[in-house]
Amino acid sequence: MYNRKLATAVALATLIFGSSMASAEVIESSASEMAGITAADAMDLNMVTVEELMTLPGIGKSKAQAIIAYRTEKGYFHEVDQLTEVRGIGEKLLEKMRHKVKVVPK
């Protein structure tokens, strides 16, 4: 609840005072840090297994397999937002797990 309020407050301030990529990074970093997750802890979508994906919120075996199938078919992920191209993963689900995943460039 606190994380959501903080993110909302920062987003509102960003809208009022101007937006930038840096502001978005601050919001994402702050939420992750408060959740106790660092960038080093996040799973690399290009290396993660089905079993590891299943530990993410809202990801069961079929969605985990769909993520791996997407990666196999399309090649490496270039950004986390590509997860919305996987069947069954929308913006809401992506936001629930965004702080737990990352993409390491290949």
TrEMBL record:
NCBIfam families: competence protein ComEA helix-hairpin-helix repeat region. The keyword Signal applies. One of its GO terms (molecular function) is DNA binding. Keywords: Signal. It comes from Alteromonas confluentis. Residues 51-70, 81-100 form the Helix-hairpin-helix DNA-binding motif class domain. GO terms for biological process: DNA repair; protein secretion by the type II secretion system. This is Helix-hairpin-helix DNA-binding motif class 1 domain-containing protein. It holds the Pfam family HHH_3. Residues 1-24 form the signal peptide. GO terms for cellular component: type II protein secretion system complex. PANTHER family: ENDONUCLEASE/EXONUCLEASE/PHOSPHATASE FAMILY DOMAIN-CONTAINING PROTEIN 1, ENDONUCLEASE_EXONUCLEASE_PHOSPHATASE FAMILY DOMAIN-CONTAINING PROTEIN 1.
